[in-house]
Amino acid sequence: xSLAVAGTLLVGVTPAxxxxxxxxxxxVLTEDFSSGQLPAGWTSHLGTWQVRDGRxxxxxxxxxxARITFGTSHENYRLDATVDFLQVTDPSRWLNxxxxxxxxxxxxxxxxxxxxxxxxxxxxxxxxTSVAGSYTSPTVAAxxxxxxxxxxxxxxxxxxxxxxxxxxxxxxxxxxxxLFRSNGTLGLVVNNATVAFDxxxxxRLAREATGPGEPTGLRVAYDDTRATLSWQPPAExxxxxxxxxxxxxxxxxxxxxxxxxxxxxxxxxxAGTSHTFAGLAPGAYTLWVRAVNSAGRAGEPxxxxxxxxxxxxxxxxxxxxxxxxxxxxxxGIAVDQENGFIYYSFTNLLVKTDRDGNVVGTVGxxxxxxxxxxxxxxxxxxxxxxxxxxxxAFYIAIVDVDAIDRIGMQAQNSALVTTVHxxxxxxxxxxxxxxxxxxDGNTGDTPDHRYGSSGIxxxxxxxxxxxxxxxxxLTVAYGVYANLTRTxxxxxxxxxxxxxxxxxxxxPLVEAAPHRSGPTEVSGKYFVRTGNTTYGVQNLAxxxxxxxxxxxxxxxxxxxxxxxxxxxxxxxxxxxxGELIGTGGEQGLLVPLATDGLTHPATGxxxxxQKADVGIESLGDGLFYLARNGTRNGQQTADLTLxxxxxxxxxxxxxxxxxxxxxxxxxxxxxxxxxxxxxxTYSHTFTASAFPKATFTVVAGAxxxxxxxxxxxxxxxxxxVRPGRAAFTVAAANGVDPxxxxxxxxxxxxxxxxxxxxx
Length: 759
What we know:
Number of strands: 57
Low-confidence stretches: 1-21
Domain Fibronectin type-III: 211-313
CATH class of the largest domain: Mainly Beta
Pfam family, one: He_PIG
Signal peptide: 1-18
CATH topology of the largest domain: Methylamine Dehydrogenase, Chain H
Protein name: Fibronectin type-III domain-containing protein
Shape: elongated
Keywords: Carbohydrate metabolism, Glycosidase, Hydrolase, Polysaccharide degradation, Signal
């Protein structure tokens, strides 16, 4: 096994510390061949190896890999030798310095040095990991000097664990950080050449001091011109020369443009575990910190994002990134507005960031498909769709997101993630519609799967369909196979659950033994005819301000439909029982699409061409985050952009650049207040659509005696004192003209004589 040792390789500088228990570098082998004999412990495996004139001559003909082995491939060492190509069949012929080698079987790690080292592959790191394999060259380089023939040059190979550097005449030309180690020996190899070797020396190198790991727990606070970065010490302080544990003695900080790495930045010392960067021009930055230890080594840098002087809109950035991850593409997002966190589902990884995109922690260990997410304001947890199609198991994953505080947390067998099984979904997914007694499995090309169900994707909390208030239900959208030969898969299926009684169903996530604990019935099942889609509603979002549901989908492919990618349903529109077109007469609760957007004349279907399939989140006051997936360095990314709703048919969302774009004069939205009764508690709430939020005052008439109006909340409450008729006018104002008013008349009935009877 090899050990990769951290730190910086200083070519030409002898490390001053111990390795393998030694207090300093130790020369463990020297050979100048002055004895005239092949030294003891040197073993020839192929070719001709002879000592002549005080040098070791190795010869190969007919493509032989002439080879000889000696010594030990220590964990950290330097092999020095002088070489002279005496004869070559052509300038591309070569010798090898074998770094970790099995000479009899001819496999391991070798460094190729050609006679013409200036070729593009004049130098190679070559590796053969087993007797049955073949040599490959993952690293090649050209040297600045050609060795040629009848010219002596000094070669040096320095190895530290899995890191190695090859130098010619003191100049490093080729390096690798992935040296294959297999407890081999050192050696020399020659191909179609005769090479003279001399002055062989092996130095067992002292272990280098190593730098600390990354500082942890980074946090950022900033205003218009300053940003304060705070952190906790790294988990690993590094080592001193010789391998003893070092101590962290201080920190260095630097600032650079957001999205770029720490290379090339100017580092300055920092006192304690926080630093304030002052005098920053408005912009997006990454603030970096690294620890320095008692060995004088600077450690790995950690960075956090900050945007001083960049205006936020309602506390949100115009753009924010969820980072780049070796996972599946982003499936959905959720926002905890009160605490300032954003959550991303990357198919098999959950990522938690702050509003600036600084990663707080991750949860992995999902081998199923983690889909869309939503934040439940009632219990402070994130709910997401989770599929295990091979096991016919469909769950809502419930994540205790307050406990996510580090990268690399695991979902399985922990209290961090619980799951609730959805039997209704399983019944539709596994439905044997052709009656042949065989469920056809996870494939769209089959008559099975009721309504074309492929499982679940979109999730969101909102009111019961047909209502705009009251209990919040978890709404779960089916995935739907695109199967172009079916007619019963053109509706989106939305099921609602009352999660207030789910505590008894929740079970830990144990993927090896999928449980079936969950509700056997749904609180409601609804159908929205959108026409064909590819895998149904990928993202579902409810917006309180607009009082509507948004359905983001992958476009369908049936030519008879418009194949829009975004649909909307108004919350107040009551479902109506009717026929599910294409199912052969089956009835269901139909919810019509909203009446704005593009209209498809042939079908009457309305919607938009708008990307909302990997993340859409309502933020209030007509604001939304929409996600876009991509890749960076082969890893999956999620970039959020802040939009405002326009409702326009060709562009329903517009990017927001300043908060003033949201300013809206108040519009009263509350119904007329109900009648009251003297001596009985009374309450009514005045509401207005406005940004900023409106305040409420009485501008004409007077409130009934015993009632007061809360200006901030619009709540009219108290106990009326006298019966009669009270007339007054309530105004809503927020600084945006014109304000709004509502004329109010409240009839106050006399108090009943004797006991009050309720009917």
